[in-house]
């Protein structure tokens, strides 16, 4: 029996960095600067620079980044936010956490929000558009920003899956009023627990979120407004700072894996993600193909010890949690069609070439039988 191939191997990924992790922990313990310590400041500077943004602020999670950004834009009860049903549940959960109503737009064949279908969903209650850069592919931000400008809406990038991705040669995170990132261990830049951050070029937003994440305090004793506790720990910031040095290499390795898949699977009746347009780059957070016998292939691969997964099998508008919004099967035809056909193949940076070849072999075998 072949060794199993994991979808993501966090243990392996972190092995060669253990020493750096220990050193980071020692430093934090030595200094005692657990909250708002020096690594946080350094990380914020470096990640802002990496994302070509003026400001970055470390937060508790990607979800908090979304919630606090919407709060900063004054989005709350009675407001509507336009987004997609093909995403991790947190995108929509964040809108609901603000007391606002999520409004879903269908996706295109690139898995991303269909910008041509946004305007018909805008009402006088719409406050923002929240496109998701799903699987690391960046949404059509020029079109989206144009629509937003015309209708006086904010645009927030859900860039939780898109660190390092690019659109028209510009980094995800620098393409809207603000962008939200996750440092969850499963993400490309993952820490040893929960974490997230926000990027923006807007000083006012940055200053507001800086207070908001720290109880609304402008100094030790004076609060300008009521806020929350949503800070990125110094220790976790140090982890992210160290891993950031590897990020570009990891994206390159994932790109190699992607190309190898194309080469080995090209002749099969499989739908690949559309080619990236010139100037665009995906970080290959996930590699998602579409095919008719998805469930059968997934089962076949799982039997061979290959962990292929589905992101996401139940579109958010059809979740029990979303029932009150009144969507039905058929409301978002493309999203629903894709949910039945999509399959995520392992693509992480620690895969060996031989493992990709084994996965491709198995898929070829599946089609021969
Ligand atoms: C992971 C993720 C989130 C949530 O990030 P957390 O850090 O886990 O809170 C939000 N949106 C998308 C698209 C994600 O992939």
Please outline what is shown here.
The chain has 369 residues and is of the alpha/beta class. The chain has helices at residues 10-15, 18-31, 38-50, 62-72, 90-97, 141-151, 203-212, 234-265, 294-303, 333-341, 353-368; strands at 55-59, 80-83, 101-104, 126-129, 154-158, 166-167, 170-171, 178-182, 196-200, 287-290, 342-345. It has a 7-stranded mixed β-sheet, with helices on both faces. Strands 6-7 form a two-stranded antiparallel sheet. A two-stranded antiparallel ribbon has the order 10-11.
Explain what this protein looks like in three dimensions.
- The chain is of the alpha/beta class and 369 residues long.
- Helices cover 38% and strands 12% of the residues.
- The strands form 3 sheets. The protein has a 7-stranded mixed β-sheet, with helices on both faces.
- A hairpin with a 2-residue loop joins β6 and β7.
- α4 runs parallel beside α5.
- The protein is globular, with a radius of gyration of 21 Å.
- Residues 61-63, 87-88, 90-91, 132, 158, 160-161, 182, 184, 196 line the site of pyridoxal-5'-phosphate (PLP).
Taking the alpha carbons of the first and last residues, their distance comes to 20 Å
Report the principal-axis shape.
globular
Structural class: alpha/beta
Low-confidence stretches: none
Regarding quaternary structure, how should these chains be classified? single chain
Number of helical regions:
11
Mean pLDDT: 97
Most strands sheet: 7 strands, mixed
Order of helices and strands: HHHEHEHEEHEEEEEHHEHHEH
What is the tally of beta strands? 11
Bound molecules: pyridoxal-5'-phosphate
Radius of gyration: 21 Å
Strand order of the largest sheet: 1-9-8-5-4-2-3
Strand content: 5-15%
Helix content: 25-40%
